[in-house]
Design goal:
Structural class: mainly beta
Order of helices and strands: EEEEEEEEE
CATH topology of the domain at 34-115: Immunoglobulin-like
Distance between the termini: 47 Å
Length: 125
């Protein structure tokens, strides 16, 4: 998968033990949103239309015995091969709508819609 500004691959890493704990308080980590799940099997993508906000991730999980891939019709992003029982996630930053297909079975297709995130409440009425 070639890197680009539209989508970024997301992977899980095994934590490495770090230095001993410090007594200096540190800021709370920003929560990472859970990727929006999409499954793919012999019948296609489920759901076929995905709606997310910029900065969110989509995780495609292959529930089939054969490989699949989610590939933007315009070539702007691609999960690469997703082996059986495996998943691949991409994080999207650009606002827009993309049709995509299965790189291994192009008659299977879906739509990804990336919207502007809603502003956080200000706290004042």
């Amino acid at each position: 998968m070639a890197p680009n500004a539209l989508a970024t691959a997301v992977s899980a890493a095994t934590p490495t033990p770090g230095p001993a704990a410090s007594l200096t308080p540190s800021p709370s980590p920003t929560p990472v949103p859970t990727p929006v799940p999409v499954s793919v099997d012999k019948d296609g993508f489920h759901p076929t239309v995905i709606r997310i906000y910029a900065g969110q991730s989509v995780a495609w999980t292959n529930l089939d015995k054969l490989p699949h891939a989610a590939t933007a019709s315009d070539g702007s992003w691609d999960t690469g091969e997703i082996a059986p029982s495996k998943a691949q996630a991409l994080q999207f930053f650009e606002i827009g709508k993309w049709d995509y297909l299965d790189g291994f079975n192009p008659i299977q297709h879906g739509t990804l819609i990336v919207a502007t995130p809603s502003p956080a409440p200000s706290g004042a009425p």
